[in-house]
Structure formats: C-alpha cells, structure tokens
Amino acid sequence: MRDMDQFSPAGESGTAEGLAAGEGGKTDESVRPPDAPDGDRSGPAAVGGGQHSGTGQAWAALGGDPALLARVSRKAGAVPLPSALPVGELATSTVTACSLAAAEFSCVRARSALLPPVHVDDGAVGAAFLGDRLVRIDGRPPVTFAPLSRYWRTADGWVRTHANYPHHRSRLLATLGITDTGPSGDEAAAARLAAELAERRSGEVEATVFAEGGLAVAVRTPDQWAAHPQRAAVAVAPLIATDRLDAAPPLPLDGPPGPGGLQGLRVLDLTRVIAGPVATRTLALLGADVLRIDAPERPEFVDTHADSDLGKRSTLLDLSTRTGQAAFEELLSSAHVVVTGYRPGALDRFGLAPESLADRRPGLVVGQLSAWGTTGPWQRRRGFDSLVQAATGISVIEAEAMAQAGAETAAVGPEAAVGTPGKSTGTPPEAPRSPLAEQYGAHAADRTPRALPAQALDHGTGYLLAAALLRALTEQRAGTAGSRLVRLSLARTAHWLLHEVPAAAGPGSVADHEPGPAGEFDPSPWLTETDSPLGRLRYVLPAVGFGPVGSGDQDGARSPADWSRVTGAVGGDKAVWQ
User: What is the pTM of this model?
Assistant: First the structure.
C-alpha cells in the first residue's frame, strides 16, 4: 500500500462505479441561493450530465468515466449570455466538468468510495462568466478594453485590434505610422488609426501588424475561416490534449486534503488575461497554494488582477536574470503544478519547456494554454479571446444574428408593441420575438462585427484547463503514474462552440438558456464585498463546487463557498511558498 498522500483507489470500490455509488442524477431546487430572485429561474431544475450534453462532451474530452455524470444535477435558469451560439451551454458545461473533476480528485485523495454530489446553478455560472465586468474596487467599474482595442473598418471589410497593454499599443501604432502619445492622446490616435485602416485591406493589416509584434486580425466569415489552414489544424486537434511525459511517481502532498481537496498542492502560475488565471484561481479556491509570477516590467493591470487572482499570491520575477532563475528553480523544486499561458515556445528560453520542467521535477503536472494551438501556421502568434472570435467567424455570426433581430423588431412594428391584442383598435397580436430581438431590438440593423456577451472563450477554456489539471492529478494517483502535460487553446474552444456544443432547443436556439433583456439578470445573489489591500473589493462568488446542498447538511465532503484570501497587491508577495 502506498503512502496516504499517494493514493490508489479506496479498496475495490474505488472505481468509477464505486465513486458514483449512491443515488445520483437528481434535480435539486435547493441549490438556488435563498435570496435569488424568482425571475432568474425560468425553468425547472434539470440534470446537466447527459453523455451527449455539453457537459458529457467536456467530460469525455477530459477522459472522465461517464458513470460519474450520474452525480451531477443542475439548477437550470437564466444564463445572462444572449447569443446566436450556445454560449450558455458552453458556460454551464465547463463549470460542471470542472466541478466534477474537483469532486473526483477530492475522493481519490481522501480515499473515499463515494463521490460528493455536484450541483451547478446557471445563475451562478452566468455571474462567473461576467465576473471580470462585475468586479468593483471602491465602487469603480473596471476598465476592460482600451480605446484602441476594437473593430475597425478597412477597405475590404473589418479588422479587430488588441492594444490593452502598452507594448501592444505602441507596436500597433508604430506599424501604421502613428505616433504614440500615450492614453491622453487616445482620441486623436483613434481618428488617425480609423483613417489609416480605412485605406488598407484587412489581410494586409493583419500580416503587417503581426510582423511587427502587434495584434490585429482580419474579421472573417465562418466560410473564410473554414478555408484557412489554421482552422484545419485546430479542427483535428483534441479539445483537451493530454500527454504522459515519463513514468515518475506522483509527487506527495503534505497534510490533510482540506475542504476542497487541494491543501498542500503548490502551483506556479505564469498566465495572463482571464483564461489561465481563471484556471489557477479555481485551484486556489480548492485549497492550493497558487503563486502567480509576472515580469517586473509588465505587471498585470489592477482591474484584471482583482478578479482573476482571488485566492492567490502574486510576485514579480525577472527570469532573464540569474537571481530570477535561481528563485524560480527553488520554487520549482517543491511545486506540483506549473501553468503557462504564452505562445508555444515563447518561454522555452527560460527553461520552461514542459519536458525540461519535468526533467527537473519528475512527477510534475504542466498546463499549457495558447490562443491558436500548437500546430498550424498561427501556432506562434499572440492572441486573445476577442481576436479569436474575430478570426473564427464568431463576430460575424453575432452581427448577423443582431441584424436579424433588428429585422424581427421592424416586422412587428412600433404599433404592435404598444397595442393590446383583442382590443377594438384592430392592433394585431404582437408576433413572438426571440431573446436576441428582445436584447438588441431596433439597434441591431448595423452589421458591425459583434463580440460574444462575455469573454466566453477565455472563461470556458479556463475552467476546462482547471478540470484537465485536476484529472491529471487524479490519473497520476488512481491510474498510471508519470509527469503530465495538458494543452488547450482558445481557438479549439471556439471550434467546440461553433460546431460541437449542443444547442438547448435546436441549432442556433437560445430559448432555453437566455433571459431576454440583459437588464433582467440580477447578479446580486452571487456577489460579495470585503475590504482588501486594493480597497473595498466586490467580486463574484465561485460557481465551481461540490458537496451536499443546504446549510444544515454537514455530512460528506464539500468545497469552499469562497476563497480563503482576497486579492492582494500586484507583485506584493515574496517568491517563496507558504
């Protein structure tokens, strides 16, 4: 028998069937917070774990046993993410799969034969996917996009730029011959940029800006993306790629597992901008000691840091110096997980290639996140959620849906909107309108490319990455030993959303998931406030979790309902483990 912190399944019942033992797959109305508004619960609770659901697809991609899906229940309701695509299903599925992976690992570590129940609330999921917009510091809304990060008309279509970070902004403007005078000159720079781009072709802008290290992509239709060689590379890649690097035994975990199962797990977080930080934030929720590392010259923005680094510690290390390298090696010597969120190969010069990390720390689990994947002509390109949406056709699909919604509203007519069916005025009954029509109304006539209602590729990929890391830890202890590498990309998640995630009520339908006007969604049941080193911090409570529902039920394993620590200052912690 192995040591208590290097688990095999608990006796002969520690199989998937044993873990799933007990009554599962129930609906559960009690999952709704007691003060949740009734209007946010448009339908009965529904089981979300069918093998052909989005959750089933995600769980299969993770290599999970389908028998465990029987322990999943879902409180179906209003996911405030109105879209022509099944964004609500993607959101709920990724959070559910992550919760199930967390419950599974907690069982394996505790050597328990009974998997805790997993309950997912659609309202909590929606709030979590909007968390980067709902966060507040001393009541101030976050700045999520810089003025030069947006869609621009070109001579033959549109481009999408990303210039949030100063170095990306400077490269974009310099490439197009525009002097960067800083944020105070945004209005003048935007006018010059608009005039310059209007004279150029989208593909030429994309190639030129990329060559100079900036970020711009041509907005493509789904058909144009289908013909692109990068799409071909993405389409044949697995949603979640997992490789076994060696046969090393799993690294021991010290102390009791704690309520989330990850107490004693040490995670080095070298990620940025939502997706990677969401994954590591989830591990921190479950009890891991997560240390985020940023370069001193490029610290994360406070608004982004406030939401995505809950539960973590933050430090600054210059890995190009001997001092920084020595500090990193000391951290690596007792780490269990390393997560990176940069282009494939971009960190290899710092000794952060997965194989190199595993050689120096056998038994390590490495997570790699990229924008475009690890194969194809764009594998070395920088990218963000908004750029992937633009390149893959998502932005065009959203624009077309909005235009259709506008036409729907126009067909109904303003008179019908104010008339009362059946009255002697002769006003005809109002025609049924889709949630998109309710959301966008007469403002949808413009076919300007549109983004999804949340950074859904980022959030969804982040939860899948956390789930993949948890499953790798489980497989090390209950399956086959060895260091692990898990890889995900935003582009592959976009492909999943576009072609594989099932719609709730038929292709393209949002009827079963969307609440209509976004203003009807009240996130307050899932918000909390506290004092922090950043100021008075408001943030969204976690949507990931497992365990019995109800304050009076103290039996069985459960995950924490909140992070054990709030966000501190960027780079405010020492480069040491707790």
Answer: 0.86
